[in-house]
Fold:
Amino acid sequence: MVTRPIGVLALQGAYARHQAVLDRLGQASRRVRTPSDLEGLQGLIIPGGESTTLSRLLDANGLWQPLREFARHHGVMGTCAGLIMMAETVDDSRVTPLGLLPLAVVRNHYGRQVHSFRTRVDLALPEPRPFEAVFIRAPRISRHAPELEVLGRLGEDPILVRTGNHLGLSFHPELTTDPAVHRFWIDHCLAPARACA
Ligand code: GLN
Structure:
């Protein structure tokens, strides 16, 4: 765990569940709704929800630029709509992504076949281990830079990716009882001795 609190963007979506996981891990956290809420945090989680709404609310709350600045020096973990916000390119002009991960996403890709599903995947956390992943109208990573670390796939598609202290997931790790993804991000990506960004 890390000593400073972790922020959870709380404008919309699944933020309460992420806080519950952090509580379970004994990790202090704080809800982020304004730029000043970012002060003193060790990292930030951008939860799932609706990326078009999130994008609009980031703008309305004056958070878009402060988040970009924060992410230059701190780790960010984005899940589902959070991954969409961390992308460089999104197939929907209503979303202005933050460009924190060198990848392109297609919204609602998995949602076309089934609204929501749960499946066992193997994730490198950092050792390969099974994880029960929940997909809810999830985005697909359609392209990415070669240097992006892919830590998990569904078929051929990357579903868990990392660049330095930033982690992006197309699924919802906060909806299972297994805190392994949160723990991996905190211990291996955020903890000062291990951060490489
Ligand atoms: N479909 C949503 C979007 O495009 C993401 C869904 C989710 O976060 N569960 O923003």
Q: What stands out?
A: The first helix runs from residue 15 to 24.
